[in-house]
Amino acid sequence: xxxxxxxxxxxxxxxxxxxxxxxxxxxxxxxxxxxxxxxxxxxxxxxxxxxxxxxxxxxxxxxxxxxxxxxxxxxxxxxxxxxxxxxxxxxxxxxxxxxxxxxxxxxxxxxxxxxxxxxxxxxxxxxxxxxxxxxxxxxxxxxxxxxxxxxxxxxxxxxxxxxxxxxxxxxxxxxxxxxxxxxxxxxxxxxxxxxxxxxxxxxxxxxxxxxxxxxxxxxxxxxxxxxxxxxxxxxxxxxxxxxxxxxxxxxxxxxxxxxxxxxxxxxxxxxxxxxxxxxxxxxxxxxxxxxxxxxxxxxxxxxxxxxxxxxxxxxxxx
Length: 318
What we know:
There is one protein chain. By secondary structure, this protein is an alpha/beta fold. It has helices at 2-15, 19-46, 72-80, 114-119, 133-142, 155-169, 172-193, 221-228, 247-253, 265-272, 279-283, 291-294, 301-316; strands at 48-51, 57-60, 67-69, 87-90, 124-128, 147-150, 202-207, 214-216, 231-233, 242-244, 257-260, 286-288. It contains 13 helices and 12 strands. The strands form 4 sheets. It has a 4-stranded parallel sheet, with helices on both faces. Strands 9-7-11-12 form a 4-stranded parallel sheet, sandwiched between helices. Strands 1-2 form a two-stranded antiparallel ribbon. Helix 6 (155-169) runs antiparallel to helix 7 and helix 7 packs parallel to helix 13.
């Protein structure tokens, strides 16, 4: 009987795990739990979320590898963000940098080849978020395409756009460096051309288009460039960001400078020489800024700003 009890006690002891064995099992379970939590966290962190300029959340499960740009300034922003190699399609007007000309042309916002765009299987389309583009954005979303609406309204929007596009493309190191360089150059320009104490800003009229005669208000980034350069946009208080105006309103505001971006300077001067009462005509303050620099709200906006500052500085000294 005692032998039988000994045998039962031996088997019971063998069936129960030792303290060391129990601790090993507990440790293993703990490690597995941590690994699962780490995996779940990595999956959560892999998801990319940014806000576009329309304040819509743009979400990608992983960095975009097939990007389509539907505006020239967007194409320049994508290259600045270090994601040029991921561009598989661009709009018809994207011609900078030079390598953009070699990328598949999908048309323009007004004449988009949607079927061709869809065949490119983009995981991200970046579109100019204004006017008819709003309708197109929704059409793309209806086709299950992720859309980022780009419409920079100031310099910080440009720098932020580079950073956000870099996040979406997984090129944050390059993008952040480019954005920092943009901000540093902007600071240098602001410091160089800030008005001196008691110095008054020079009054400026930006002729956006001649027929119909159009200009911009203070919300437009070009108006902010005028201000940075020590100028004052005479149509800053217009209700709309861009608007049609009359010749009479220009005469009434009497700008000291008139500049455009789609004219030759002699042609611009000839258009206004019939109005000798205007200060800009009296002083001969007419000039033209490179349109690709000043009207494309990408990194080269600073090239246009610097050119504008130089011209206004020279006009102020007349």
